[in-house]
Amino acid sequence: MAELQMLLEEEIPAGRRALLDSFTNLERVAEYCESNYVQSADKEQALEETKSYTTQSLASVAYLINTLANNVLQMLDIQASQLRRMESSVNHISQVWWR
Questions:
Q1: pTM of the predicted model as reported, rounded to 2 decimal places
Q2: Residue 99 confidence (pLDDT) above 80
């Protein structure tokens, strides 16, 4: 129960906030890369830098999405387990009551 509460109150909201922050950071990186490319005398170097930032940014976003997805799946597993226990209890009560 404590694990579910931690996921619902801390881990999942923190993961969501991290993705929202990442969105803002990606916009800044895109603006920087565009400005850098336009102002750069060496377009090839600017393009390589843009590729590097893009790769790093996408890897970061993929990691955040994976972490959040795993937390959501863990939450769903815990809730499914709780539902199975409740179903078992209801079935037991039903069997006892009909005897």
A1: 0.82
A2: no
